[in-house]
């Protein structure tokens, strides 16, 4: 599961009132992968610069690249908080997934790496959206 919109059945119902969906994409990423990625996020509070210890680490661990000031981890990004958020999201999103599945518009993709999932998502989208031709 992956956070996105709509996240709850109420949001899905509200969305139905303003538009008709014909395609919904669900990215199924293992719980541990999501927890590890979100827990690796650190921020420089004064500037809002975000670092990820796995994908975009600072040059010196725990220190902002430009100012040398300490980085902080939000309470929401600590592993225990991330795990609780993901469990709550999964429970809320399950009926949304079932709704779109029952309508036959849900397309699910599973994996742990963007570069491996994206080609499949791109193929689906390319088959549904006509290309934009430049003049």
From TrEMBL:
It comes from the Eukaryota. Keywords: Kinase, Nucleotide-binding, Transferase. The keyword rRNA processing does not apply. Pfam families: ADK (PF00406), ADK_lid (PF05191). The keyword Hydrolase does not apply. CDD domains: ADK. Residues 41-76 form the Adenylate kinase active site lid domain. GO terms for molecular function: AMP kinase activity; ATP binding. PANTHER family: NUCLEOTIDE KINASE. This is KAD4 kinase.
């Amino acid at each position: 599961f992956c956070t996105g919109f709509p996240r709850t059945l109420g949001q899905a119902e509200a969305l139905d009132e303003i538009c008709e969906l014909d395609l919904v994409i669900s990215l199924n990423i293992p719980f541990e992968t999501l927890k590890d990625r979100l827990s690796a996020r650190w921020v420089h509070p004064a500037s809002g610069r975000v670092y990820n210890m796995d994908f975009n680490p600072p040059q010196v661990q725990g220190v902002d690249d430009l100012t040398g000031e300490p980085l902080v981890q939000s309470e929401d990004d600590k592993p225990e908080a991330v795990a609780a958020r993901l469990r709550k999201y999964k429970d809320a999103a399950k009926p949304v997934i079932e709704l779109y599945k029952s309508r036959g518009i849900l397309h699910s993709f599973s994996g742990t790496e963007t570069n491996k999932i994206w080609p499949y998502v791109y193929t689906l989208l390319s088959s549904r959206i006509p290309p934009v031709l430049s003049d």
